[in-house]
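ARCHIVE CARD
Drawer: 12
Card no.: 0347
Subject: one protein chain, sequence and derived structure
Cross-reference: see card 0346
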Amino acid sequence: MLEKKEYANGQKVYVLEDEFLIYYYEDGTEKAKGPFKDEMMEGEWIFYRKTGELWQVGHFKDNKKDGRWQRYDREGQLEYDEEFNEGKVIKKK
């Protein structure tokens, strides 16, 4: 999963420290961050647009969406709110 280490411009694609992973866009802006254990996304992850705005907040279990996922539009308004169980949608709000 963690293969490409740098963009062509030298910017790091990600930084992994103490089981916490941060992904970056090519310009160095944060793309996503959250716990990364045993080569898998776990727990709460936060995703950002290239502009730095919050895009999604969701939970992973064994690299699959699990629990509540919320996505926001460009104005910061809630766009969708869903519950997942092992990668499958079980409830939409």
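Annotation on reverse: The chain has one domain: 14-92. Residues 1 and 89 are 24 Å apart (CA to CA).
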